[in-house]
Design brief:
707 residues, alpha+beta, Immunoglobulin-like, de novo design (two linked rop proteins), 3 domains, 22% helix, 29% strand, TAT_signal
Length: 707
């Protein structure tokens, strides 16, 4: 989150520079070297055709899908002596041909290879779509692939690998599928990411086995987060699993693509429906709530199969070699704006994806390169010498949640987290492509060891960004706090900025805790930081300097304020911690005193409406108020002594603070029935926080500031 620059941050290049620096060297590279796979050679035409016909998949599409698998050859042109397919020509030509309501030229391309000196062969099914419109990006042209690994001696399939969004997200894979079942692909709306279907529910994705229904994937479970230990690590098909995804409207040069003069056949109706799309994530103050779920639309089947009669559309099966004369699929890049909360302002950058030719990719001739699940590669390596052993894979994983008000807290003074109700978008600065969450789970795999910046965006939500350190041992890295990243809706978000504009602070780490939700944010920093918090929280901001000395600050955002909350010159050491305790004690004393005033005049009612006797309630409340005042006085004196560089006096005063905190806890216990339950809960949590910070102050070597 730290930019280290002045106020003239370039909003559209700050992340672009980071991504190009890291992404150019790292994108697509594995963090570990696996064993090399054997060489492959093309399968003879007759065998290739037989394999392709036998395993030609049935394709299920969303009812709102605008771009179906087609043949790109009608849209080729010549450029500098090479055959290319222009994005403008493909998209406009496709929609011109689509005028009668039937998908034009339904086609699937196949390619088959076999590993030398091995009975293992692979037939690939490549699907080309003219455009990709999704929630994380959009681009001209889209290629998706299904690999079917087959043992030619036993004539049985060994593994299905269906391509997901990128190597950042594991593919959807199935080991040892039923040899008598035709592969089925459930294509994700707009993006065409391929989920598998191998169970009896033909047009539905099943992540885990339920009753008699098999799981549609055999991917290994997520590691690193306890409550995800039984969840297979795969993208799957979120909208088929009850998740909601907002789609974006693609723009080029600031205008929607359907307004471009080179796309006369493209209208707004050519894209994904309005009811599923938003113009930008920033345009919403809260997440959309009325997004429709997935419904099955057209079903494609191979025209030469005997079961093709069950399909709505019959597709041609064509050797991909018929396309290999095409040198490139071209088109101007379309951007996806991605925000990061910087200390000065919210930086924005466009993160892009590009499409190349399948025959220029390593997985075209070595399909095993696309096996993304280590246990699947290990299984094939045990069966076939041609497949190299798996290597450890660095994975960053987290669960994204929503921040909401806690029912146990006073109004605007406490939060809790709940399951996210709208999928978010995740980006590592070393990757060129943002990826969506699935069921609220954020995953980035094959991540190089080292420091990274992880940013999460969502429609109607403020961005979250943090630094993540990935080890080089292949163990999963849990991002966020204990593997959880809470998100704040825009209409309740306030930016908390830590550090002054000079950038001279030696801060190394910042954390934010809410009284009720606990720690919500923690990240290493480089002198400055910024994070969005919910205005309805009551926070402790913890700072650490280069020497790992601790400081703490109380933050209570004004629910009606729009300006950022700033901790200009954060300090660490005994003085900072003692001053924090004094502030928390005074904050709580004032709220308790207000209850006492109400009780003196009218009697107090608890949350259940029970009235209390004035004298008894007043005595208990007054005792608690005075006890909190004593804590505040002792803590302020400790802070003063620390700033005066009086170590011995400071430590003795901190002992007094602890004694008075213990007394305050006793007074709170006596007054609990006389104080509204929410305030009693808050006071208890604040006293726990104050005790912890006082203990930190006692152990601290540093007195104040740089001492």
């Amino acid at each position: 989150m730290t930019d280290g620059t002045g106020s003239d941050v370039d909003r559209r290049t700050i992340l672009g520079a980071l991504a190009s620096a890291g992404g150019a060297a790292l994108a697509g590279c594995s963090a570990f070297e696996r064993e090399a796979d054997g060489r492959t050679r093309p399968v003879d035409d007759e065998t290739a055709r037989a394999l392709a016909t036998r395993f030609a998949p049935t394709l299920y599409f969303d009812s709102r899908e605008p771009w179906f698998p087609t043949d790109p050859r009608p849209y080729t042109s010549e450029r500098d002596g090479e055959t290319v397919v222009s994005g403008f020509d493909a998209v406009d030509g496709y929609h011109e041909r689509d005028g009668d309501g039937s998908p034009p030229n339904p086609t699937v391309f196949y390619h088959a290879v076999e590993y030398e000196s091995s009975p293992l062969a692979v037939v690939q099914f490549w699907c080309y779509s003219a455009f990709d419109q999704f929630t994380t990006n959009f681009h001209w042209h889209d290629w998706e692939v299904l690999h079917v690994f087959v043992d030619t001696e036993t004539d049985e399939p060994q593994l299905y690998v269906a391509s997901s969004h990128s190597r950042t997200v594991p593919n959807n894979e199935y080991l040892d599928p039923d040899p008598d079942m035709v592969p089925r692909i459930l294509s994700e709306l707009g993006s065409h990411s391929s989920a598998l279907s191998v169970n009896e529910a033909a047009d539905r994705f099943q992540r885990v086995a339920v009753g008699d229904l098999l799981a549609d994937i055999t991917n290994a479970a997520i590691e690193g987060i306890e409550d995800l230990a039984d969840v297979p690590l795969a993208y799957g098909l979120p909208r088929d699993e009850g998740s909601r995804l907002p789609y974006l409207v693609p723009e080029y040069e600031g205008e929607p693509i359907y307004d471009h003069e080179r796309l006369p056949s493209v209208t707004r109706e050519s894209l994904i429906d309005d009811e599923l799309t938003v113009r930008s994530f920033d345009a919403l103050t809260s997440p959309p709530t009325e997004l429709p779920s997935r419904e099955t639309g057209l079903v494609f089947g191979h025209r030469e199969r005997t079961d093709a009669a069950d399909a709505d559309i019959e597709y041609d099966l064509v050797p991909s070699g018929d396309l290999e004369h095409i040198a490139d699929f071209t088109g101007p890049q379309l951007s996806f704006e991605f925000r990061v909360p910087a200390a000065v302002e919210d930086a924005v950058a466009g993160h892009l994806t590009a499409t190349g030719t399948p025959w220029s990719q390593p997985r075209y001739d070595n399909p095993a390169a696309d096996i993304s699940v280590p246990n699947h590669r290990t299984a094939l390596a045990e069966r076939y010498d041609a497949i190299g052993e798996a290597a450890p894979i660095n994975t960053v994983v987290s669960r994204v949640t929503d921040v909401i008000a806690s029912d146990d807290a006073p109004a605007n003074e406490g939060l809790t987290t709940t399951e996210i109700d709208l999928e978010a978008v995740v980006l590592l600065e070393s990757e060129p492509e943002a990826v969506p969450t699935f069921d609220g789970i954020a995953v980035a795999r094959d991540v190089p060891a080292g420091d990274h910046r992880l940013t999460v965006n969502g429609a109607g939500r403020a961005p979250h960004s943090e630094r993540v350190t990935v080890s080089d041992d292949g163990a999963p890295t849990a991002a966020g706090v204990d593997g959880e990243i809470p998100m704040v809706t825009r209409d309740r978000a306030t930016k908390l900025v830590v550090g002054d504009e000079s950038g001279t602070s030696d801060l190394s780490r910042v954390a934010v805790e809410d009284d009720f939700a606990g720690r919500l944010y923690e990240s290493s920093v480089d002198g400055r930081d910024a994070v969005y918090v919910d205005r309805g929280g009551a926070y402790t901001t913890e700072v650490r300097d280069a020497d790992d000395a601790v400081g703490a600050y109380r933050v209570n955002p004004d629910p009606d304020a729009e300006s950022a909350v700033r901790i200009e010159r954060p300090e660490t050491g005994k003085a900072s911690l003692a001053a924090f305790v004094a502030e928390v004690a005074e904050e709580t004393r004032a709220e308790i005193a207000a209850v006492g005033d109400d009780d003196d005049s009218d009697g107090d009612a608890d949350d259940d409406g029970t009235e209390h006797e004035g004298s008894g309630a007043s005595n208990a409340i007054t005792g608690l108020e005075r006890s909190l005042a004593a804590v505040g006085d002792a803590a302020r004196r400790a802070a003063e002594r620390a700033r005066a560089n009086e170590r011995g006096t400071t430590d003795r005063q901190l002992e007094t603070v602890l004694e008075r905190l213990q007394r305050a806890e006793e007074r709170l216990a006596e007054a609990r029935t006389d104080v509204p339950a929410s305030l009693s809960n808050a006071a208890g949590k604040r006293l726990e926080q104050a005790s912890r910070r006082t203990e930190q102050a006692r152990r601290a070597e540093k007195l104040s500031g740089g001492q």
